[in-house]
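Action item from last week, closing it out:
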Amino acid sequence: MRYFKTAKKSPKNIVIDSFIYVLLTVISIVWVFPFFYLIVTSLRGESTAIVSYLFPKEWSFKNYEWLFTDPKSQFINWYVNTLLIAIVVSVINTLITLLTAYALSRMRFSGRQPLMKFMLILGMFPGFLGMICIYYILNAMGLIGTNLSIVGLMLVYVSGSMMGYYVSKGFFDTISKSLDEAAMIDGASRSKIFFSIILPLSKPIIIQTLLGAFVAPWGDYMMANYIVGRGGSEFKTVAIGLFQMIDSDVKMSDNFTRFCAGGVVVSILPIIMFFVMQRFYVEGVTGGSVKG
């Protein structure tokens, strides 16, 4: 068997590669450090907010115990509220997105291309540009600062679902249209084809869309506080509740380590979901990146 020798790197290439590795190492440290600091601080027994050292002088799980056992803590209620919103929003968002993507992938109608381009361009604008308009509309409907604020918040989260059609449409374009045609010959309707044939073949894009739709409301503070955090509503998401724990100097001093513990707990579920569904998530992104 013939062996091929690898080409010897020139001093210039060695220097360039070394610089790239050092740069990537520095970027990785900068990216990981906030998460490391959050975990370490959550295990600090000293309750002061700002300290001049990194590692705790007293290691303790009392901050986590306080979140789940102390009568003054409402963390469990905040967590359940956020979980409820994220589940409902992710299911509705995924269904609307996939239905829109399937229609644009399979059906041909007048104005289809302009509509796709319009939604794609409109989706490039950040949602907070319309916050004032959204506030007045929801306030007129009685969905601001009341016990119905959760409904208004979920409406905002799902209202732009169809504008995320692009990746899903690309994935549907990779599924042969002959399946639809064969089913139509047998008398199947469009809805029957979508739910019975296309969806079972689309697990990667379903999971990719579902994860994206779940994470958005899970960590959102700006829109949630804007809609739910006003008026006399007692309903709070975990982001609003954790922020209110440290929204003053006194609260910061007493609750900063508890706040960090809450941040760690909140991050566990999305991390587990991404690790468990990583293979399908990557397949959904790459499979939907084709031009259609």
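Closing note: The two ends are 46 Å apart (CA to CA).
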